[in-house]
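User: Fold both of these, please.

Assistant: Here is the first one.
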Amino acid sequence: MNENLPDDLPDDLAPWFVRVIHNKVSVGIFTCTEEDLWDLVDEVCEPDLCEYKRLPPGGFVFGGEVVLHEWDPETKPEHMHDCWLTDDWGTVYNDEGGWEPVSVPW
């Protein structure tokens, strides 16, 4: 267990992939309880226009060169250049099944 994690993390914390319903444009990946998802998506766009799906183990890989030594802020690396999803997450995004509309949890 990671000792740096807070003791009060909810048991139902999960990663969620959110996209716009009508055009399938990605909104983001959120880690929260399902009940908190609406509020987080609301910080970015209209939640009622979005759908979501729980993600399996996987990840989002930042592009650019991986630097295994001290970072030099003068080099200004492009951390978001050429990003991609791991295979499992890419499969989830492209699968049309299992998406649920983001709705108000109350």
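And the second sequence with its predicted structure:
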Amino acid sequence: MRDVELPALDAFLKARFGPSASLTAVRTMAGASKQGIKEFGYGKPVLVEYELDGQRREAVFSSMRGDKYGHQFYWDRAAILMFQHETSARLPGHARSLALGYVGAGGRLVLCNDIEEFFVLQEKLPGHDYYDDLERIRRGDFRPSDLVMARSLAAWLADIHQTRKADPDLYWRHIRNLIGSSECILGLIDEAYPPDFPDFSADRFLALEKRLLDWRWTLKPLHHRLAQVHGDFHPFNVLTSEDGSFGLLDRSRGEWGEPAGDLAAMAVNYLLLGLLMHPETPLEFRGPFRELWDAFFEEYLARTADAQALEVIGPFFVFRCLVVASPQWYPGHPPAVRQGLLRFMERVAGKPFDFRQPETFLC
């Protein structure tokens, strides 16, 4: 964080406590630069002395520095400081938080006051959910423009994935989150499936999780693959227009990650809708959604020559299959379709992926 100017700190105190507040001194905290045998620390607090209504007061001003332990970005650090602000006073004997704020343009200290929730206001893009196009196809209206769109989406991914970043820690964080996050694989296993789920027993989930630990160590040396990603590239986050253009919504799970994650997020929906279109043959993947699947992968590989993406896509398909096979999120699936998705998930976690032979992962 940039150095804080004293006039900005004085203005912040007045914003928080009123015009009678006045900054008198800022001092280095005793022991702030030395923590005994604990050589690593996250913050650098300073002692703030001020007067309020003629009374001498003291407070501690602290922020967090970025590091590789899940605090690379300011929003990571903001979440921790928000937690401390909200909960400190609820713990007996704990120091109370007096204010929560952020450093704005020009070094301003801006007060965040009386917070219950945050929100974001975004522009409205033209178009409709890409999922609506896929449902139209499932009803029998398959158009040449649909293949063009699948290729356009793959081309867009190929373009953004060209931007790479040399940062092993971010890649490892991405893989940890994929497996262990409450939003991702382990969270879905715990929360999106009942404990006694008849279509996938606890023993099968246990075996799946053990395979994922192997995947973590398979992926760990591949940090050179860290690329710009969308992070949640599925049909409800793509808006398409009749002129063939499209826009994107709800970027998630980090700015940087494994490109194969974006591929799996979209492709699993072609698989899902293909099985729903022909539920009587759950061991097959055919028809228009198979054509979209082939076009999507072919276009991406033609533009990137990234065959390694297919070698590492397994655990990302596991994540996406857990979503689309969930009885909580998709309760209306015919049993054969749900079981087909779960078989695909189980097999793609255990053997090399070949997009040209998806049937081998359904049987």
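The longest strand covers residues 22-28.
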